[in-house]
Each structure stands twice: as structure tokens, then as C-alpha cells.
Amino acid sequence: MREQDYEALKAGWQKEWNEKGEKYAKAVNDMVAFAEVHGWDAYEGEDAVDEREGVTQLCEAVFELLKDANERGETEKFRADFPPSNVIFDKKLRKKLRDIDQICPLGGENVLFIASNDDGKTLYLLEGDRVSEVADDIIAVGKSKRNEIYALLNQDEVWLIRGYDGKSGGELVARFSHELEIIYDEAEILPFNDGSKVLLAAHDGIFLISQSGAKLIHPTYEDEGEDEDEYELEIAMANATISNDNELIVAGEQDSDHVLMDSEGERLGCIGAQSSYPHFCLFSADDTQLITNSCHFYNGVTIGVDRALLKRGLEVGFYDPDGGDEQNFTLIDDAMRVYAGVATQDFYILGDAYGYIKAVGKDGRKIWRHYLGGTIKSMAISEDGSVLFVGTYGGRLHKLRLGAGQDSHTIGNGNHKEEFRLIAYENKIYRW
């Protein structure tokens, strides 16, 4: 094909991509804005349709142009010509995407993240817009709430490093052998602020790991009515967190309530699910509130509980249609199945199963929403609160500058500028 013919074809792809992309974004934004004011029952229009969906030639061509732009170092120009979307990935391509998991903030706007699939996990460092591979034997990475303690977990041990930079920098604080046979590589780890131990949530259970070894804190053998010598534990939807001051631990999984514990894992109380299954938990930035999410299919309910009530050993019952326990919590959200979240000084940012991130206040006030697509998997925010990193099960890591403006393809009302996204496809990381 002659060069001028190819350029004409490319111009046609660009025109179709942008016209249909802008039309779809506007239709979705108008539809959701109407429903938020009048309710979905009052909406009588047609559902928004992305007319690029299923146009194989267009989508395949844009993906090939994206890969070529990365080879040439021309990703900024490509992004200006083809604002990003999710429609280029059909079922065949989606199988080759790698989950973006456990984004861990470093100093400034740098982060660590893990890309994982059935072939294993790789830990990467994102510095500015440059990506480099760190290690391929790390199952989980986490950062303490305070004091810059980082935890790295592999199949044999835990490393705790103060001031880690993703390279060789930092002070080794501790090194624990955990002696756990981690069934699946999906695990999350949180180090304590003093570097004395870590909280591990995995399919094998929820543990405290220290120099003394691994201590199972949830669920316990007594909970299951089993003999420790005969019991093989495997749980689903393990989730846990620590208060910022490290005085409280909260842990949950599919077959339990959210259990409140002290820093040694001793039970203090519980927060019953207000939907079906405990799925996520997080403390506010000032530690005055705990939020817990429970899910049912792709939806869920999030409630907030006052820290002062928690310290008195609060017991919140399972969902009661008569509202018997309503006085003990605040309804934060009644729609999202929450997979990831961060707490800012003013509100929470939560990511859900449908691909939305939403800012909600401690009183349940809806502040903004922003659509990324794909189930949200992980999230981190810069220390100054200006930059949000979001990872998805759809193989993308998004870098959003909050409140910095949005383009005509953006779905949402948060006014956020996506500076770029990374796409983990096969064994490569592409920038868009």
C-alpha cells in the first residue's frame, strides 16, 4: 500500500474513532445525569451504544497503531489522535491481558505494581512515565499506613524495608520466614507502622506474620468447629485492613461477618454484612470511621461505623429489613461491589465491579464518579492527594490527575485528566 493511501486510511480510522467515541461518552453522561436527578424509572430514552464495539477492522487497526507508537516513542501523539477506550479488546485479546494488582505508592508520583495472569506475577516500577521490571517472584507488595515501611512477600518469606524505592535503596527492617503454603498467588499484605509484623489476607486465611511465625487470626479453627490437625482452610474473597494508628484490625471473607480485632488479632466485635458477603473494608484517613462493603453478584452495600463505637466492642447485626441496627452505622453507598479504595482527607474513592470509581463522603454524600471500564482491582493515591493510580482486571493502570480537566471522551463528572494508561498485554507493557 502506498504511503499516501495508508495515511488516508489512518485518517478515516481516526475520524470514525473520535466521532463515535465522543457520541458515546456524551450519551452516557446525559443518561446518567438525568437518572441521578429523576431516577432510572423516569428515563425513557434508549441505552447508549458505543458504535465502535464489534467493528473489528477499526479496533484491530487502532491496537496495531498503539503498539507501533510505543515502538517509535510517539505515544503522546497517538493519544492525542486516538483518545483511549476499552473497545479495542475483544474476547480473544482480553485473554492476553494481565491483571494490574496491588499498586503501591512510593515517593512523589512513582508506584510499584504487579501484573499477573495464569503464568505468574511480575513486580514493576513506574517512575514518571517509565516502566521497569523489578522481580518475578513477588506475590504481594504493601506499604504501612505510616513510617514508609514496605513489605515484599514471596513463597518463602517476607521482607520489610524502610524507604524502599523499587530498586536497591532502603533499610532492611526485618525478614520473616512464614512457612505458609500459599494455595493461590492472590494475596494482599499490609506491614505495621513499626515494622514488627504484617497482616496477610489470602485464600489460605488471614494471618499476622512476625519473627514468631504466622498466626491465623481469621477464620479460626474454633470458628469452623474443626480440629487444627485435620483442618485444611481455604476461603474466598479474603479482605482485611488496619487502622492508620495500627490499633485495630478488620478482616472478612465470604462465609463470615467483618470481624473487629485488636493489634494482636484478639476479637473485639463484628460488623454484619448489609448485603450478602463481606468484600472490602477501609478506615478513613483520620481513623474516625470504618467502612465495610458486602456484595451480592455485581452490586453491594457500604456502611460506615464510628470509631468510638468500635472501641466499645460494637456488634452490628446482619442486614435487617426492619432497620433494627440502623442507628449503629451510616449508609455510605447502596450500589457498589467495592474491590479497591483509598481514603483522602475529605472523602473515600472507591472502585467497583462495573468499572466506576466514585468519591463519597463519610456521610454518604455522592461527590463525583468517573468511568474506566473493567472491574477495578487496585488503587493508590499520591501523598499530596493530586494523583490517583487505578488498576483493573482488564490489564490497565490509569494515571489520573484529579480535578485537572477532562476530554470529550471522558465518561463521568469528576473533571479528572487521565495523563496516560498502561496496558499489560502478554509479556509487554504498552503506554496509551
Question: Can you walk through the features of this model?
Answer:
- The chain is globular, with a radius of gyration of 22 Å.
- It folds into two domains: 3-81, no CATH class; 98-431, YVTN repeat-like/Quinoprotein amine dehydrogenase (Methylamine Dehydrogenase, Chain H, 7 Propeller), CATH 2.130.10.10.
- The chain contains six helices and 30 strands.
- The mean pLDDT is 93.
- The longest helix is centred in the N-terminal third of the chain and has 36 residues, at 3-38.
- A hairpin with a 3-residue loop joins strand 23 and strand 24 (356-360).
- It has a five-stranded mixed β-sheet, with no helix packed on it.
- It has helices spanning 3-38, 56-72, 75-81, 91-94, 221-224, 307-310; strands at 99-105, 111-117, 120-127, 130-135, 140-143, 149-153, 157-162, 171-177, 187-191, 197-202, 205-210, 213-218, 239-242, 248-252, 258-262, 267-271, 277-283, 289-296, 299-306, 315-316, 330-333, 338-343, 348-352, 356-360, 366-371, 376-381, 387-392, 396-401, 417-425, 428-431.
- It is α+β, with helices and mostly antiparallel strands and 432 residues long.
